[in-house]
Specification:
4-stranded mixed beta sheet; 21% strand; 5-stranded mixed beta sheet; 362 residues; alpha/beta; binds oxa(dethia)-CoA; Peroxisomal Thiolase, Chain A, domain 1; 2 domains; 29% helix
């Protein structure tokens, strides 16, 4: 089926709400299709930064990191092996396409969520399209920090559901270790982040019940100064001492972001369940941004979510920002834990500030 074939609206293409017929000149009913995941993949660099390794280079301890974050190790891209945001994204998409058993030239759209691309232009998406021979697929990057992949998922979903395209790839990739200050001054932030990429391939499905049954995307720019990577002194929030922040390295007001994350995460779950008219017990998996295990635990307790329904891999990979949710989902899928009929909620929050959710019917 081409991307422009109409899928009949429920009740027939020309049926009105009252069951009658539209006059001949009335535009066709909007096309509403289902959407499904047909493949996922991820890429994690082999090199690891363990807590013991961090103890050797900064004033921290394994005990502090594990207690405050749940993290034991994170991955680090190695430029000597040509690992970077775009090459990791490319590896993740290759794996997702192999899983989907389709060639890259069937993609109509490639969205890459990242805040750590090598070049301002071209986009990571364009470089991937070239490397994987994705033909004339539309390609763009999206910068919404840790929420980026879930933002991209919602955008691709709506484009497929609306009938504009048939097949899309949504990738999250981050090479964040390049922005970490591993001196003691940056220890609150540097222990958190790791590198990696995750990808998913989505396709229009004949069953309109499949796809997102509720989603939300939010932002609050007043919080931008709680998490940023400045390039020039002019980028600093008013009144900041330039000596207190290093150019080109991530600054995070950990406590503020923590407070925002705990509250937002919980209200995001409540809002999404509400929109869908679904109870928390009906959700098979909550696939959440891995920012800090304490934030995940707080949400789990509040909604009474059993441990096996809230996937956690932060102890192995750390916080990989936009890559976090798709890596988790790929691991879950490959473990055979996603079944037809499942409801799965994707959730993320991060710099911007931004937050987003997507509740899917499989
Ligand atoms: O993914 C994007 C969104 N990001 C997040 O969701 C991250 C949210 N924030 C957090 O996860 C936490 O705030 C952190 C893990 C970053 C920090 O944990 P915290 O419990 O909020 O620590 P804190 O910043 O309040 O610092 C507590 C103490 C301080 O010492 P004093 O002032 O009490 O003596 C820090 O200097 O812990 C100290 N500290 C450390 N000690 C050992 C901060 N970082 C470290 C460290 N090792 N790495």
């Amino acid at each position: 089926m081409s991307s422009h074939d109409a899928i009949p609206a429920p009740g027939g293409e020309h049926a009105s709400a009252g069951g009658g017929h539209y006059p001949a000149h009335t535009p066709k009913a909007p096309r509403v299709a289902g959407v499904e995941f047909i493949g996922t993949g991820s890429y994690l660099p082999e090199d690891k930064i363990t807590n013991a390794g961090l103890e050797r280079i900064m004033d921290t301890t394994d005990e502090w990191i594990v207690q405050r974050t749940g993290i034991r190790e994170r991955r680090k891209a190695d430029p000597a092996k040509h690992e970077s945001a775009w090459t990791m994204a490319s590896g993740a998409l290759e794996n997702a396409l192999a899983d989907a058993r389709i060639p890259a030239d069937q993609l109509d759209l490639i969205i890459v969520a990242t805040v750590s691309s090598e070049m301002a232009t071209p986009s990571v998406a364009s470089r991937i399209a070239n490397r994987l021979k994705a033909g004339k697929a539309a390609a763009f990057d999206l910068a919404a920090a840790c929420s980026g992949w879930v933002y991209g998922l919602n955008v691709a979903h709506e484009m497929i559901r609306g009938g504009g395209i048939t097949t899309a790839a949504v990738i999250g990739t981050e090479h964040l270790t390049q922005y970490m200050d591993y001196s003691t001054a940056g220890r609150g932030c540097a222990i958190l982040f790791g590198d990696g990429a995750g990808a998913a391939v989505l396709r229009r499905a004949a069953d309109p019940a499949k796809g997102a049954i509720a989603w939300s995307m939010h932002g609050d720019g007043t919080g931008w100064k709680d998490l940023y990577i400045p390039r020039r002194p002019d980028d600093l929030p008013e009144g900041t001492d330039p000596a207190a922040v290093k150019m080109g390295q991530m600054f995070m007001n950990g406590r503020e972001v923590f407070k925002f994350a705990v509250g937002t995460f919980q209200s995001l779950i409540a809002e999404t369940l509400d929109k869908a008219g679904v109870r928390a017990e009906s959700v098979a998996h909550f696939v959440c941004h891995q920012s800090n295990v304490r934030i995940l635990e707080a949400a789990r307790e509040r909604f009474g979510i059993p441990q096996d329904k809230l996937y956690v891999n932060i102890h192995r990979v750390g916080n990989t920002s936009a890559a976090s949710v798709p890596i988790c989902f790929d691991e879950l899928r490959r473990a055979g834990r996603i079944h037809p009929g499942d409801k799965v909620m994707f959730l993320a929050f991060g710099a911007g500030l931004t937050w987003s959710s997507s509740l899917w019917q499989f």
